[in-house]
Amino acid sequence: MPHVIIVEEEPMLRNLFVKFTEALCPPATLISGTKNDQHALQVFEEMAADLIITDFETPSLAGPKLIHSLRSKGVNIPIVVASDLPEAVAPAYDAGATLFVEKTQLIKFLPIIISRYLPPNSHHPPT
């Protein structure tokens, strides 16, 4: 089953992003909403993901830490960074992000992100 991890510290936004992602993905897709990089890594280690959508400017700097951690382990799945800080674009790509999207535009671009980065036949067995 395809798996998407969404990292967003703000509970209301996290729930909103999870609900929209659930509505756009194939029915059997697992969507995991996580509050920070540590939680996202724990979820990823329990069940690998096909796509990660992460905030960048959290107090724990979840985006950069998460991306560096996964890329240093050789994980090459798409990681989409969502932020409204223009100064986060270069650091996001430097960290290894696949795509950068303004957070206020994430809902608008979710259909494109899902169709491009989450193929219907994607599947990663648990690690």
Characterization of this structure:
With 127 residues, this protein is of the alpha/beta class. It has a single domain (3-117), classed as Response regulator (Rossmann fold, 3-Layer(aba) Sandwich). Helix content is 43%, strand content 17%. It is built from five helices and five strands. It has a five-stranded parallel beta sheet, with helices on both faces. Strand 4 (79-82), helix 4 (89-95) and strand 5 form a beta-alpha-beta unit. Helix 1 (11-24) crosses helix 5. It is globular and about 35 Å long. 37% of the residues are buried. The mean pLDDT is 90.
Q: Any key phrases for this structure?
A:
single chain, 127 residues, alpha/beta, Rossmann fold, five-stranded parallel β-sheet, 5 helices, 5 strands, 17% strand
Summarize the structure.
By secondary structure, the chain is α/β, with parallel strands linked by helices. The protein has one domain: Rossmann fold. Helix content is 43%, strand content 17%.
What is the topological layout?
Blueprint: E1 3-7, H1 11-24, E2 30-34, H2 37-46, E3 51-55, H3 62-72, E4 79-82, H4 89-95, E5 99-101, H5 106-117
Parallel strand pairs: 1-2, 1-3, 3-4, 4-5
Helix pairs in contact: 1-5, 2-3
Number of domains: 1
Helical proportion, percent range? 40-55%
CATH superfamily: Response regulator
Strand content: 15-25%
Spatial strand order of the main sheet: 2-1-3-4-5
Arithmetic mean pLDDT: 90
Distance between the termini: 14 Å
Contiguous helical run count: 5
Would you state the CATH class?
Answer: Alpha Beta
- What structural class do the secondary elements suggest? alpha/beta
**What CATH architecture do you see?**
3-Layer(aba) Sandwich
| CATH fold assignment | Rossmann fold
What is the count of β-strands? 5
Largest sheet: 5 strands, parallel
